[in-house]
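Section 3.1: Structural characterization of target chains.
Under the original work plan, the team committed to producing a structural model for every single-chain target entering the pipeline before any wet-lab resources were allocated. The record below documents one such target. The sequence was received from the expression subgroup and is listed exactly as submitted; it comprises 127 residues.
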Amino acid sequence: MLNGFLVLLLCQLLGELVVLASGVPVPGPVFGMILLLLVLIAFKKTPKSVRLVSEGLLRHLAFLYVPAGVGLMVHLEMISHYWLAILVALLVSTFVTLVVTALVFRLLGRLNGPAKGEIGDSSEGVK
């Protein structure tokens, strides 16, 4: 289990280092997760220690939002000043995310073609 934490923390550290060195406007932990994903894809298998640690963190994910909520309360005055802009940004970004997700889903569906037995499968159509 300690090895799993070590792998996750090393990926986060490498992500932080890459972001600091390159100046890419992405949070270090996000870049670290991308690195972890690439490593897991390369190995084609998730090590048991990483899986156990990840499942444990996901099981308690709600507790990880507490610091973010406290941070929001610290900046409550600024949030109350810009609430309309924040609300519009949240609504627009949510809508854009839904549209992009639907378009990607449709594109991937066309690239893969209909699965056997699905509606529109021409292999069992009228002859």
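DSSP finds six helices and no strands in the chain.
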